[in-house]
Design goal:
This protein is mainly α. About 70% of the residues lie in helices and about 10% in strands. Strands 1-3-2 form a 3-stranded antiparallel sheet.
Length: about 190
Amino acid sequence: MSSIRLFILGSLEQHGPMHGHQLRLLAEREHIDTWTDISVGSLYGAIKRLAAEGLIEEVRTEREGAYPPRQVWAITHEGRASVGSLRMGTLREIVFKPDPFDLALTRLDPDHLDDLPAMIDARLASLRAMLADNDAHLTAIRRYLSTSEVHATEHRQVRLRAEIAWHESLLEALPAIIEDERARHQEGRSE
């Protein structure tokens, strides 16, 4: 699954030929960096990859004022087939990536167990700040979003709230985790 491929191909399919700057402006107008994993700055590299794969093609070059010439891209027949299957596959696929934090939690340093509550508190504070920032941003941009974009943005908020709830439960479990880690470490020394 590639969000950026879906964005570029879907945008060219929906809006017709565009140059990279127009795609960038569309991404900014739709605030895709808020509710997707797309970095607006990565659009140009993705455009080149899609062109190399024959999914988009240059249809003309435009020049506005003193700006350098810009290549205008259109989706190809192969691109239309690809975006259709990409769209359907993405709607079916569940992306739920493991967090490296979980591995670190199972490989704690016995000499730094007392630092753990402060670290989890800091993570919790960061997650709460992210949620507050995203809530404020969503409130500010909501009127510019389609109904589906609002739901996509709220999906991120729901995931952040779940992450906060899990961290809160972890914080409550830390005394037992620390006690268990100390006992395991002592047991390991005596073997």
